[in-house]
Design goal:
Radius of gyration: 19 Å
Distance between the termini: 15 Å
Largest sheet: 5 strands, mixed
Number of helices: 7
Bound molecules: magnesium ion
Strand content: 15-25%
RNA sequence: ACAU
DNA sequence: TCATGT
């Protein structure tokens, strides 16, 4: 997670560009031979540095330490998502879920768009699914905002499934229907559906455009 | 196909 | 490559 308000420039890495969280920037440079990166306090500084290149830095930019790998992955987002004309303006909450296929556990969290600051984190939970995590994260954010008396703050998710379940106030989960979900999560799902039915006019839910803006700030990294 |  | 979903 970002320590409120930092901007990370990666000049050399798997996918060079501008990142809002250390988790996402680290993915680009960890284990990448010859990686070059640096953090900045403001967007303007970061954008200027990204455009100018690593050679323009007078001090303390990061260099890859030990490792060796040079391969990357196909480019997804643009190098500077913040420059996209449709990038979200103003404050918002961002949520995401992750599935740990090694530990077989799901977790989810919510962060502020502007700073990357963690607002909530739940889990890990056994016997879950990606979609159940995305759904619970989204409803958790909506309920939290309602409790604060904030009816206008938008909530971003990258999950079409979670958006559909919230819209219908019903989670169409195969795993749930077939009894593969833990009692704890079943209870949370039931509670979430009931909350939605009791609060038909919840805050606006918006789709995070990962292809245009890069990973949602609430993303967990490992993928 | 699209989103995870 | 697999699983969860619209
Ligand atoms: Mg997600
Ligand atoms: Mg993610």
């Amino acid at each position: 997670m970002a320590k409120a308000g930092k901007y990370y420039v990666v000049w050399v890495g798997r996918e060079p560009g501008l990142y809002r969280t250390w988790a996402s920037a680290e993915q680009q440079i960890k284990g990448f031979a010859g990686a070059l990166f640096k953090s900045f306090a403001t967007q303007a500084e970061a954008e200027a540095a990204l455009a100018a290149g690593p050679g323009s830095q007078s001090s303390a930019s990061g260099r890859a330490s030990g490792s060796s790998q040079t391969s990357g992955r196909a480019s997804a987002a643009k190098a500077n998502p913040l420059a996209a004309s449709n990038y979200p303006k103003g404050e918002a909450l961002c949520v995401d879920a992750a599935w740990n296929s090694v530990q077989k556990q799901m977790e989810y969290q919510g962060v502020w768009l502007s700073s990357g600051e963690l607002l909530f984190h739940q889990g890990p939970f056994a016997m879950g699914t990606n979609n159940i995590g995305e759904f619970l994260a989204l409803v958790h954010a909506l309920a939290w905002l309602d409790k604060q008396g904030d009816a206008s703050m938008p909530v971003y998710t990258d999950s079409m499934t979670a958006m559909a379940w919230v819209r219908k106030k019903k989670a169409n989960s195969q795993s749930l229907a077939e009894g593969r979900i833990s009692p704890e999560l079943v209870a949370l799902m039931t509670r979430a559906e009931h909350w939605l039915q009791a609060h038909p006019k919840h805050n606006p839910v918006k789709k995070w455009l990962t292809k245009e803006w890069g990973e949602i700030p609430a993303d967990f990294g490992r993928k």
